[in-house]
Design goal:
Blueprint (H helix, E strand, L loop, with lengths): L8 H5 L4 H9 L5 E2 L32 H12 L10 E4 L1 H13 L5 E6 L3 H9 L3 E8 L2 E2 L1 H11 L3 E4 L13 H14 L2 E5 L24 E6 L11 E5 L4 H12 L4 H12 L2 H28 L13 E5 L6 H10 L2 E2 L1 E2 L14 E5 L5 H19 L1
Parallel strand pairs: 1-11, 3-4, 3-6, 6-7, 7-8
Antiparallel strand pairs: 2-9, 4-5, 8-9, 10-13, 12-13
Bound molecules: pyridoxal-5'-phosphate.
Length: 389
């Protein structure tokens, strides 16, 4: 049956996410997956006991559970972002935060500027609104300020979307100077900042994590956080903190989409984050993921040496690997899969594609055990070597 006449033009133009398509392989037991952004379930704590939670059986507030919003106010205050309950919206993961923000601010006439490369599922959401996405070159300290100025002047964008801490996919973390310069430029031009910060607690070195939002003096902003990377992604719980002008509009969209986020999950997260277990849990995550990051870095150097380029990320879950000249990431993906190793080509992370974007792989070190990771990198390095000859 042909249903294409029933679909909107934006739905027809949507491409399936390569990550989602690859995820079904990662669920097969014999596959060693370096592909997804999935946290290690062995590091996830048990749920709090049901009896100690607020009763969640009735419909709730569209803004989210009061107890969880109070917890979020305290969490973001520790980051220098001082706000009130009215400016917190609990969402079904930060992915829904992106959706709500996009529905509120973007349409066919809008351009949104992003890092190049950037989180591909954010681009999918922006595209669903029909927005034009313009990637802005970024280096290891973040988005280039000069390139951002040029892009703002050339495209008159609605917003700039940034992931300043342990970016997905590159792992980059912005320097304080870059954060300050970008804030000053957005203030000068009065451009909306959409700041996405799901990885900040997965921090393994002393680096600056100041939200750019807190450096703004007059530009509008929306800041997103998530509990997916530190607690239970299956509970789909994240949040948007907004400057006061946006808050009532965000709630109306949330109400129209799904009334509110699942109350039971919100109350579980509120109970855990408010308990003394939370800080200890974050320290445990940092120690375990740091060990895995170091093991991946060591394995890459031992197996591939000078053949590939990468920076060891100061936090997050990802290595961003530049392959040897002439080696295609798509070929590496197919060859590696034949040997039961799943890797993710970098191409879908580039909003504006060029042929040289086939030269990257994103490798996640979060989920495999140390021994599995060694094995996966060994197989991957043989695959890369074979393609070089
Ligand atoms: C940069 C970024 N933003 C948002 C998300 C979505 O996270 P959530 O599980 O909170 O929806 C992810 C998930 O990988 C991400 O990497």
């Amino acid at each position: 049956m042909d249903i294409s006449h029933l679909l909107t033009s934006h739905a027809i133009n949507m491409q399936a996410s390569l990550v989602r398509e690859l995820l079904h392989y990662s669920q097969q037991p014999d596959i060693l997956s370096l592909a997804g952004g999935l946290p290690d379930e062995k590091l996830m704590p048990a749920y709090p006991a049901l009896a100690q939670l607020t009763d969640s059986r009735q419909y709730g507030a569209s803004e989210g559970e009061k107890g969880l919003r109070e917890v979020i106010v305290r969490l973001v205050a520790d980051r220098g972002l001082h706000t009130t309950l009215d400016n917190i919206l609990v969402t079904n993961g930060s992915q829904q935060g992106l959706d709500i923000i996009s529905r509120l601010t973007l349409d066919e006439s809008s351009t949104i500027l992003t890092e190049q490369p950037t989180y591909l599922a954010a681009c999918q959401v922006f595209k669903l609104q029909g927005a034009n996405i313009q990637g802005v070159p970024s280096d290891s300290e973040g988005m280039s300020v000069l390139a951002l100025r040029n892009a703002i002047e050339n495209t008159n964008p609605k917003a700039v979307y940034l992931i300043p801490n342990f970016q997905n996919p590159t792992g980059h973390c912005y320097s304080l100077k870059r954060r300050q310069d970008i804030a000053a430029l957005l203030d000068e031009k009065g451009i909306l900042l959409i700041e996405d910060d799901p990885y900040r607690d997965l921090c393994y070195e002393k680096v600056d994590l100041t939200p750019i939002t807190t450096l703004l003096k007059r530009a509008p902003w929306l800041y997103m956080g998530s509990f997916s990377k530190v607690l239970w992604p299956g509970l789909r719980t994240g949040y948007v903190v907004s400057c006061a002008e946006f808050s009532p509009h965000l709630v109306k969209i949330k109400q129209a989409i799904d009334l509110h986020t699942n109350r039971l999950g919100q109350n579980m997260i509120a109970a855990f984050v408010a308990s003394e277990m939370f800080p200890a849990h974050i320290v445990k995550l940092q120690q375990s993921y740091k060990e895995k990051r170091d093991a991946m870095s060591k394995a890459l150097v031992a197996e591939l040496g000078e053949m590939v380029e990468f920076n060891t990320p100061a936090g997050g879950m990802f290595f961003w690997l530049t392959l040897p000249d002439g080696v295609s990431s798509k070929h590496i993906m197919t060859d590696a899969l034949e040997e039961n190793v799943l890797v993710l080509p970098g191409i879908p992370f580039f909003p504006n594609r060029h042929s040289q974007d086939d030269a990257f792989l994103r490798l996640s070190f979060a989920r495999l055990s140390l021994e599995e990771m060694q094995r996966a990198i060994h197989i991957l390095s043989n695959v890369i070597r074979r393609r070089m000859t």
